[in-house]
Write a structure and sequence with these properties.
37% of the residues lie in helices and 25% in strands. The protein has 227 residues and is α/β, with parallel strands linked by helices.
Length: 227
């Protein structure tokens, strides 16, 4: 018999596949604004590794800090965090905007994909860019560097609330990222926000069609209230 957890996973997969095909960060941001959540966009410096990257899934937050000595057993919590990823998760890592640490690379991307994760968002540097792009694994980051994390950064907690890119991210929040940026949908309003975003896409499609047919911007804005 299928468990409730498995049903939720199946429902999430269908939901996130639909969102990836039909929605985009800007329209979700507008829906969040309308719901009163106006500060849900991660800092503009967090960019997709490649322009076509789209990430959507449930946040598995990770907290990383800078360190200044090589531990006897490096990577312990980093390994545990990746090994605890679930299907449809997105690893969201706060490094407190570190510029000396690369917490993410090709092998972690490979392990995450094998566990069913849908991508990674890092408010810091990553490495192995060519290999990750060849995999077409959606990764968002602030920059690239070849350095290893050992002795430079360490994961201190995972699956806990964090601040990433200036936004609070809780375990299970929905994150959506594309070339425009990344938005965080709190679980409490996810159904409302997604429904509103889909409705706005439909309205934008009608607006676009009428603009192409020669209607003025004022006419279609007065009609649909969409810009």
């Amino acid at each position: 018999m299928e468990t409730e957890k498995n049903r939720q996973s199946h429902n999430d997969t269908e939901l996130f596949d639909m969102m990836e095909k039909q929605l985009y960060a800007a329209v979700i941001s507008d829906a969040l604004d309308a719901a009163g959540y106006r500060e849900q966009t991660l800092r503009y410096t967090i960019r997709p590794l490649y322009p076509e990257a789209i990430v959507v899934g449930r946040a598995m937050p990770v907290l990383c800090v800078d360190v200044y000595e090589i531990p006897d057993e490096p990577y312990q919590q980093e390994i545990a965090a990746v090994d605890n990823l679930k299907k449809d998760d997105v690893l969201v890592c706060s490094t407190n905007q570190s510029t000396r640490n690369c917490i993410w690379g090709e092998l972690l991307s490979t392990a995450a994909r094998a566990r069913g994760a849908r991508g990674a968002i890092v408010d810091g540097f990553i490495r192995d860019a060519r290999q990750i792009m060849a995999m077409q694994f959606p990764v968002f980051m602030t920059g690239l560097s070849p350095v290893d994390s050992s002795g430079r950064g360490d994961v201190v907690a995972y699956n806990v609330p964090i601040e990433c890119g200036g936004v609070m991210v809780n375990p299970g929040d929905i994150v959506f990222g594309d070339i425009d940026g990344i938005v965080v949908i709190p679980q409490a309003v996810e159904a409302e926000v997604i429904e509103a975003a889909l409705a706005k896409v439909s309205g934008e499609n009608r607006t676009r069609d009428e603009l192409r047919a020669g209607a003025t911007l004022r006419e279609v804005y007065d009609k649909y209230g969409i810009l």
